[in-house]
Amino acid sequence: TEYQGRIMPSAEALALAGLEPLDLREKDGHAIIVANSLSTGTACLCLEDVAHLIDWALAAVALNYEAFRSSLTAIDEDALA
Predict the structure, then answer these.
(1) For the chain, which terminus, N or C, has the lower number of CB atoms within 10 Å?
(2) What is the spatial distance between Cα 81 and Cα 73, in angstroms, rounded to a whole number?
(3) How far apart, in whole angstroms, are the C-alpha atoms of residue 81 and residue 76?
(4) What is the number of other CB atoms lying within 10 angstroms of the CB of residue 59?
(5) pLDDT tens, position by position, 45-56
């Protein structure tokens, strides 16, 4: 562990910081690992949902332009530039 710019054993770094080591039991490490992968997986699923939402929103805008026979000059490349 690095503490205040020095590499040292974790127990020593905790003592210098005035902290006590955690009292981990049989399944605590497993719970920590599972919680981390669960959070990562949930975040990936949320990103996928956002990507679909953006695609659906663009499709809805395109259908509205088509349904109302709107002028496309507002989204013309020259106008957007």
Answers:
(1) C
(2) 12
(3) 9
(4) 10
(5) 999 999 999 999
What are 14's two structure tokens? 């905790």
Residue 16 CB neighbours (<10 A) = 12
List the chain domain ranges: 2-80
Q: pLDDT by residue (tens digit) across 11-60?
A: 999 999 999 998 888 888 888 888 888 899 999 999 999 999 999 998 99
For residue 34, give both structure tokens: 């599972």
Cα separation, 71 vs 66, whole angstroms: 9
H-only helix segments in the chain:
10-17, 28-67, 77-80
- As a whole number of angstroms, the distance between CA 27 and CA 70 comes to 61
Amino acid at 80: L
